[in-house]
Amino acid sequence: MKNLFISPSLPSLAHRQTNLAHKAVKQAVIATLSAILFISPAQAADFKEYPDLPPQQSVLTALQNSPSVLAARAGIQAGQAAGDRIAAGPYEFSVLAGDSRRRISDTGQNQRDWTVGLESALRLPNKYSIDQKIAEQTATAAEQSYGDAMHETARRLLAGWFTWLKETAQSSQWQQQTELMQKQADSVARRVKAGDAASLENDLTEAARLQADVAWQQAKLRADNAAVSLRNYFPALPLPAKPPLQPPVAVTEPLEHWLSVGLDHNHELMLARTESKTAQLMAQRADTDRLPDPTVGLHYTSERDGADKIAGVTLSIPLPGSARRAVSREQEARAQMTAQKEAMVMQRLKSEITASYNTARISYLNWKSAHAASELMQRNADKIARAYDLGEAGLTDVLLARKQSLDAKLSETLAGLDAAESRYRLLLDTHQLWPLGADEHDHDEGR
Q: What is the CATH number of the domain that holds 49?
């Protein structure tokens, strides 16, 4: 007897039903993704512009074109497809076909028998409901991963921007010092020529000028390297010819305010919560799988060259074993793991926001002290320079005062930039600096 069995996969009727059931959900998800991926100028305008930061639209363009964000954008599409797969379910219809030849030994007659059939496993209603929730959470997790990628990339941009600002500001100040030392050298040269100063003073001022010039060239190199690094990571980000330096602003809100807004708008925390909820749903799904899904089939058989015709229905149910119970226990344990991970993320974020708040507050106080010290050192250097011109002070005193004034001014500049960066980092980590997601365009401009 010859037998032939063919079992090709065909599009599932259940899948088509699922598409209809989830049409509204998918439309809502698509609208959300559009809002996330393409932030409109009106939304960006809800966030305040800062003169010592790049324009918002330039920042958003740079962020959205970075490889890590582009990868997360592709991840949204993958998450949506994964959600569709989960919602559709694992079962498809199969077509069965068989053909055989029968030889009757008594008569030597050959007869043909053939069979066709259609069968599929059927997902139980409670499993279907859980799968829809898992599908939604899967798509949501991909969206939140995109927001988290935007946040992490924005952190890199902010750090690179302030590295460039600091190096460029130092280069500018060393250039000013070099020019000032050149003027001092010219003044000394005139005094030496007039016989009012020893030629040794000319050598001292020239040495001081050369030292300042070396420091300037080194600072220029660091500034150029910082600019190259920033352009490599963010080609769309414009760098102004002159660094836009502004006095830092104090953080006036209490810590509780920053904790509240920071934890309400943190994509990493939202992602951890989504993963925890998904794991709980997976545990529920595994528990329902302890009751196997039945497989239902329809078949039609023709025997003895069509003399007998048989139509029937088949029902098969797997007998559950220890493997299903083990999967249920595994998923339950994984749900507990993700719940603890969510708690860990919450603890870490609270610690990070608190540290950022303290850093921003203390950095501003440090800048105020450095600013006062710089003004005192500048006045002292000017007084000693005038005294030297009147012959009431030595050149060594002038050079020392100039160096102290420069050191104080550099300290003030760096302290001010540290204070500004720490405040902007606090705003960024609490999602109040730039619009990094669809839910972040409704804050006021009074920050």
A: 1.20.1600.10
| Residue 446 within any structural domain of the chain | no
Instruction: Give pLDDT, residue 5.
Output: 33
Q: What proportion of the chain, given as a percentage, has pLDDT over 90?
A: 57
- Count of domains forming the chain: 1
Give a yes or no: residue 269 inside a domain: yes
The model's pTM? 0.78
Q: Please give, one letter per residue, the 3-state secondary structure of the chain.
A: CCCEEECCECCCHHHHHHHHHCHHHHHHHHHHHHHHHCCCHHHHHCCCCCCCCCCHHHHHHHHHCCHHHHHHHHHHHHHHHHHHHHHHCCCCCEEEEEEEEEECCCCCCEEEEEEEEEEEECCCHHHHHHHHHHHHHHHHHHHHHHHHHHHHHHHHHHHHHHHHHHHHHHHHHHHHHHHHHHHHHHHHHHHHHHCCCCHHHHHHHHHHHHHHHHHHHHHHHHHHHHHHHHHHHCCCCCCCCCCCCCCCCCCCCCHHHHHHHHHHCCHHHHHHHHHHHHHHHHHHHHHHCCCCCCEEEEEEEEECCCCEEEEEEEEECCCCCHHHHHHHHHHHHHHHHHHHHHHHHHHHHHHHHHHHHHHHHHHHHHHHHHHHHHHHHHHHHHHHHHHHHCCCCCHHHHHHHHHHHHHHHHHHHHHHHHHHHHHHHHHHHCCCCCCCCCCCCCCCCCC
Range of the domain at 246: 21-93+125-293+344-429
Domain membership of residue 76 (yes or no) is yes
Would residue 396 count as lying in a domain? yes
pLDDT averaged per 10 residues in sequence order, the chain, 447 residues: 36 41 43 41 62 92 92 92 91 90 78 91 92 93 92 95 94 85 73 63 78 89 94 92 89 93 89 94 93 93 83 92 92 95 94 94 95 92 83 77 86 94 94 73 37
